[in-house]
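Can you please make up a whole protein chain along with its backbone structure tokens because I've never seen that pairing?
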Amino acid sequence: MSMQKKPQMVEAVVFFNDRGVCKEMLYPEFEALLDNVVQMPDLAEQQVRLAYVLINPRLMIKAAVFFYLDFDEKGEADRGWNLPLRNLSDRAGRGPDLGAGPIRLACRSQCPVSWHQMHLWDPILDGDNNHLTLLRAAAKRNNLGVLVEEEPAAVEPQRLQMAAEHQWYAPSEEESRQTAEKLAREMLQEHQQKTAELLGQHETRLSQISQQHEQELSRLKLGAQEQVMVLQAELTALREGLKREEEINDGLRRELEGQVNGFQRGREELTAQLRQIEQSGRDEMDQLRQQIEGEAKARIAAVEARYREQVSVRDAELGYRNELDQQLQRENQQLQQEVQQLRQENQTLHQEAGQLRQELEQVRREGVQWREQAGQAVQLQQSTESLRQELAMLSARPAEGSILERLAEQGVIFVVYHPGAGHLTLSLQDVARYQDNPLAFVAAKCFVSEDQYSQWLVHYQQPACEGRLSNGDRCALPIDRVETPGRFVDGDSNCCSRHKTAGRLRSVTTA
């Protein structure tokens, strides 16, 4: 037996903006929003208009509560919001008919609980932005997925019966007119009844509002009377205080007048004393003026004498300074001549530097040529090695008539080339010794040891500094090539100037 959910009333919350409905959610989702389980960043720092609605299984609205909700900068709902939406919906007054009879409507102008009135707002009931029409359209769209109850058929198909043939024709005009009048009277009575009910409800509501206003007015009058009594008591106290202040001011005024009279007499006495003091001061001033004039004349004479001495000293100093200036001018001329000579020497050095650059370029070109010759020497060495191998093969087969001896008898000359030794002519006796160790043979011809010749050969093929940098890498700075093995000194000929100095210092320290 399959279980099937029954349609029931659904609580939902609808969000409004300037364009109409912008968001819909079920009431459990709205509770999660109030608990800040979810946030709405698009509504951050806004006061949003919302509507709490009850929707029946036929997608018709039964109740609506229009209220405000604030969101903070993070899009979280106001944590202090606590409006009893269900209570307001149950106690709301009658509103327009949206298809299922008059709805229960709670808004700012029709609030069942007066202290919640400031948190509600009034919907627009006319024009294209009719909020109730927008709510009805949103409910019909059923974006929330409300379970819908199908409307039963007015008459079951099994109970349908066909009318008699004589009843197929339309009724007469008299019957139609009577039926229309009867229907109009019934509709008029129903409309009058509904109008009477609405008027009664509005009168009841107006009486309730009038009663509330009278109670509020009585409360305000009582508060105003209490405030008037308090203000009258304060006014009486202020009048008494003002009277005391006036008495004090009268006493102070009399005391001040006596002090003014005393000050007037004192001022007259002081004026007379001041005149006497002025007269005596004039006499003393005349005496002091005469005394100061005499002292000033004496001081002026002494200062003039001292200044004359200083002027004579300054004249002597000026003469000495003139002599010093002339001497400095002569020295300055000598310095200018020396500067001119230094400039000429500097130009000469620049010219010499240019010549040295040209010579360095020539040396570099010669180095390239020597590298090419070294390559040729390597090729000759390779050919010599191949010849040596052939000679070894030939010498490994002794016979009465040796091939080398036959070649020597026929006038063949054995010649090899090595860098530093040039072309060497090998006799028949030297061939075997040459084959055993070519480097030792060539080193002996150059009058150096085999190690020195090997080190020189590396330097000859790649003339670069063999010194080591602080990080352990090879310096590899290009240096001048030593052309003969006998002039090669390891640690000196194969190093740049910096590593030569470092090597010498190291050898001196070791010694």
Remarks:
- The mean pLDDT is 80.
- Residues 9-150 form one domain.
- The first helix runs from residue 27 to 34.
- The chain is about 60% helix and 10% strand.
